[in-house]
Structures are given as C-alpha cells and as structure tokens.
Amino acid sequence: MNNRKIAFITCVNDKKAYEECLFYIENLYVPDGYEIETIEINYATSITSGYNEAIDKSDAKYKVYLHQDVLIVNKNFIKEIVSIFSKDSNIGMLGVVGSKDLHNSGIWWKSPHKVGTLYESIVKLKIVDYGNEYDIDEVLAIDGCIMITQYDVRWNEEVFDGWHFYDISQCMEFRRKGYKVCVPKQERILCLHDCGIAGTDYY
C-alpha cells in the first residue's frame, strides 16, 4: 500500500463529462512527496463492481470515488483530506454532504438531520448548505457523488448490482468494521455536482 498516493476513481459512460472532471483533478495542488492517479472504469455492470475493479488495480492508500459529473473546485482538496485522515485513524470515509440518521425510505436527504456543503447545478448553480454542528461531523450516511476513503473495504456488488443505494450500503460496511463515516466543515467548498435533473424512479 502506497501511503502517499491518491487514486481518483470514476465509472464513465460520458466521455465529455469525464474530461471536465479530469481537468479539475489534474489541476489540484499535490503536496510534496505525494502522487495521484486517475482510474477510469468503462462498461461497468454496476457501480459497486466498477469500484471493486479499481480497488484491485490501485495500491493507493487514499481513494476518491467520484461521479463523472463532479468537479473538485477546491485546489487544496488533497491537503485537506489527508490532514483530516492523519489526525484520526478511526475515520474511514469522508463525504461532503450526508445525514446523521436515515429516513425510513433509506434516502439520506429525506432526513431532517443533514450536514455538509457543496455546489450543485440542476437547472442553475446554487450552494447546498446544510451546515455543520462540529468541525468534523460523524454521520450515518453520505452522498455517493464523492466518497473518500483511507481504508479499502470492498463494495457489496452481490446485493447492490445497479446504480443506487451503493453509497448507503458502503457507509454501513465501514461502520460495521468500526470506522467512522464523517462530513467535515468546509471553509472553502470542495466540489460541484453538475447533476442536472435526475429522477428517483429506481429508488
């Protein structure tokens, strides 16, 4: 395992969107002694199988699983996430938005106890700001638009064989192994999710 390597992992079916995602990754500030790699997964049968394929390919300690329509706009992203992980070895995974409990539907954003911040572009660009109670809030679930880990836990592709609820599942897997899932307070917003209008029919 390379403790000074960060892998950025994306399942891709839209090359144009991914090219923009890559542009932002390639322009991040990389601290001295660290290196990055980008892993593009094409033709994945599910997001969990694609992410497991990336785990098998990479020796990076830190892995950033992000959607092809997520742009990391804070150039100090790497420094900030590594600093958080280095201060608490019990934190297994970070997100930018999430919830401290779950609505009985299992959909995290229906919880009244949401935390975190990001830019979001659906019809127009806006700031989604749920706030934070602490500098680092421990949560039950984070959104799958970007999920950042310092430990490898395999994704449950046997059960989650599509494109939904993999994020909630993985949060539970990390918690079962005794790791914390957290959302940090962002002095400068880390990313923009250019998601457009998406339906929830398959939820």
Automatic annotation (TrEMBL):
UniProt cross-references to InterPro entries, sorted A to Z: Nucleotide-diphossugar_trans (IPR029044), StrF_dom (IPR059123)
Superkingdom of the source species: Bacteria
Streptomycin biosynthesis protein StrF domain ranges (all copies): 7-199
Protein name in the entry: Streptomycin biosynthesis protein StrF domain-containing protein
